[in-house]
Design brief:
Layout lengths: L3 H13 L3 H16 L4 H28 L20 H7 L3 H4 L3 E5 L6 H14 L4 E5 H13 L3 H9 L3 E7 L6 H14 L4 E6 L6 H5 L2 H11 L3 E5 L5 H9 L29
Parallel strand pairs: 1-4, 1-5, 2-3, 3-4
Helix pairs in contact: 2-3, 3-6, 7-8, 7-9, 9-11
Bound molecules: adenosine-5'-diphosphate (ADP) and magnesium ion.
Magnesium ion binds next to helix 6 and strand 3.
Length: 278
C-alpha cells in the first residue's frame, strides 16, 4: 500500500466503496502497467476485471452455501457409464440451466443409490454459478418447515422466502409418508411454484405409489398434473452405485439384486422432450 496521505485516503475510499481487490492489487498492477507502458485506462480496466471476477466467485460461493446442499457434488465426478439407464444427453442439456429460465420441472426417478441426489446437487451448483438462487430440501425437511411455519403463523413469510428461489430441489420424495396437513402444505407449495419457478424432485417411487405418501388420490392427481406439465424426466434405474463401489472395494462381485423402483410405463425411458400443453 502507498504510504503517506494519498495511500491512507485511497485505502479508506476503496474500503468504503467495497473494492478490496482494487486495494490489494492496485500497486502491483500499477507497477506492471508502468513497466509495459500501459495507459491509465488499461490499468483501471485490469483492476475492474479482477474485482469483478472475485465478486462473481464470492457471489457463487454465497449462493452455494445458501442452497444448503448436504454435500458438494459436481458432474465432473459423475461416472455416466456406471448408470447406463440415465440419459446423459439430457443431464448435459439440463446442466446449461435453460430449464430454470423456462420454468420447467425436473423429475429424477430411480432406485436408491443411482445418483439422483448427486445429479440434483451438481445441477443445482451449476445454477448457483449462473447467478441463480437455489435451495435444497429433503421432502421431509420441507414438509417439517412448512408445518412449523403454519403452527407459528409464519407460513406467509416462509412462502415469500421460498418464492425468491429460482430453483428448489426437493430430494427423496417418497421415503416418508406425510400427515394430512403435511401433504396439503406440500401440494400448496408445488401449486404455488407451478408456472412461476422451477423445481427439481428426486424420488424412488413410481407414480402409481405416490398416493401412499400423500394419502389422497385427489391430491396426488392434482399434484402430478402440475408436476408433469413441463417436465424433464431423468430415469436412473439399475444397481446402486454405492453398493457396486463398496462391493468393488471389497473385491467381491455384487450379488444382490437392486430394489425395484420403476415399473409400468409411466415414464418413457429418460424422456427428453418437455410436455408443452399450451
Ligand atoms: P440416490 O440419490 O439415487 O439414492 P446418490 O446420488 O445419493 O443416490 O448416490 C449415492 C452415492 O454414490 C453418492 O455418494 C454419489 O455421489 C455416488 N454416486 C452415485 N452414482 C454415481 C455415479 N454414476 N458416479 C459417481 N458417483 C456416483
Ligand atoms: Mg438420494
Amino acid at each position: 500500500m502507498l504510504s503517506g496521505e494519498t495511500g491512507v485516503l485511497l485505502a479508506y475510499h476503496l474500503k468504503t466503496l467495497k473494492l478490496p481487490v482494487f486495494l490489494r492489487e492496485y500497486q502491483k498492477i500499477a507497477a506492471r502497467c508502468a513497466k509495459e507502458q500501459g495507459d491509465y485506462a488499461r490499468f483501471l480496466l485490469e483492476l475492474a476485471e479482477l474485482e469483478l471476477i472475485e465478486r462473481e466467485k464470492r457471489g457463487t460461493e454465497r449462493r452455494i452455501i445458501e442452497a444448503g446442499f448436504p454435500v458438494r457434488k459436481t458432474l465432473d465426478t459423475f461416472d455416466f457409464t456406471a448408470i447406463p439407464s440415465l440419459n446423459k444427453q439430457l443431464v448435459l442439456e439440463l446442466a446449461r440451466g435453460e430449464y430454470i429460465k423456462r420454468i420447467e420441472t425436473v423429475l429424477a426417478v430411480g432406485n436408491s443409490g443411482t445418483g439422483k441426489t448427486h445429479i440434483a446437487i451438481a445441477l443445482g451448483t451449476m445454477a448457483c454459478c449462473e447467478g441463480l438462487r437455489v435451495k435444497f430440501f429433503t421432502a421431509a425437511a420441507l414438509v417439517t418447515a412448512l408445518i412449523e411455519a403454519k403452527d407459528d403463523k409464519s407460513l406467509g413469510r416462509l412462502r415469500k422466502q421460498l418464492a425468491r428461489y429460482h430453483l428448489i430441489i426437493v430430494d427423496e420424495f417418497g421415503y416418508v409418508p406425510f400427515s394430512k396437513t403435511g401433504a396439503e402444505l406440500l401440494f400448496e407449495f408445488f401449486a404455488e411454484r407451478y408456472e412461476r419457478s422451477s423445481i427439481f424432485v428426486t424420488t424412488n417411487l413410481p407414480f402409481e405409489q405416490w398416493t401412499e405418501v400423500l394419502g389422497s388420490e385427489r391430491l396426488t392427481g392434482a399434484l402430478l398434473d402440475r408436476l408433469t406439465h413441463r417436465v424433464h424426466i431423468l430415469e436412473s434405474n439399475g444397481e446402486s452405485y454405492r453398493f457396486k463401489e463398496s462391493a468393488r472395494r471389497l473385491g467381491k462381485k455384487a450379488k444382490t439384486k437392486p430394489e425395484q423402483a420403476i415399473s409400468g410405463n409411466q415414464t418413457t425411458g429418460g424422456l427428453t422432450e418437455v410436455t408443452h400443453t399450451d
